[in-house]
Amino acid sequence: MQHPTVQALRVRLVPPVSWPVDARGWTVFSLAALLAVALPVFVILANVEYVTKSDWLYSYSWWRNGIPERTNLPVSELDSGADQIKDYFSNDTERLDLRVTFRGEQISLYNEREVQHMVDVKGLMQGVFNAVRITGGIALLIALAGLVYFGRSFWDLLLLTLRWSALGSGIVVGVLAVAILIDFDFVFRQFHFLSFANDLWLLNPSTDFLIIMFPQRFFFEATLFIAVFSVAQFALLIYAVRLIGRRASPVGKGED
What we know:
It is a single chain. The chain is mainly alpha-helical. The protein has one domain. It has ten helices and two strands. The protein has helices at residues 4-13, 23-53, 56-64, 67-71, 75-90, 112-150, 152-195, 209-213, 216-248, 250-255; strands spanning 99-102, 105-108. The chain has a two-stranded antiparallel sheet. Strand 1 and strand 2 form a beta hairpin.
């Protein structure tokens, strides 16, 4: 017979979940497994979308990286350029014609190589935006359908799935954040090798305005923001699930 402390620990770590070993039971388990994958993808990519579409990140970067001095463009023109890029990611325009006012004259800031690279970046970002909608919809539909059709048997498994999915995802994101802190240059290059089928992303930091406006440190800090937001949200989810589990469990109520 297990010591009471061990039994209590098992209750805290692994809430009792049971389902019949039949078609219905495997359906419940399959839905939970799909939710365990869809949820972290949704959280992380939603943070990518939020950071990409934010205003504060760009304003911070102009100051942090001295972009007005490096480009000889005022902050208002840099903000306009960032807004054009954010609009470009969401509209149907194929090519980006980023125009700014320089010395009283409207000019196109990016050269052909930069424009072609932005076509690739737009495809990647629209894939991210679509994935956010799809994974969010999948996670919501699974949770609602499971609770409606399977009731309590799915509720217990849902709490367990959310807890371990959030915990595992938080650990993975944390490890990646450490890797980024150790050698972001390597991670940054591997990301580009995997994401793009060409070398248009290899730009000249002395002459190409795309990389002058958005140096590597911009992406380094944006990635860290995404990681911090994601880990914090996973931690909040774990806490919320634990709180809900305690309130719903007779054993948990007896411990409080």
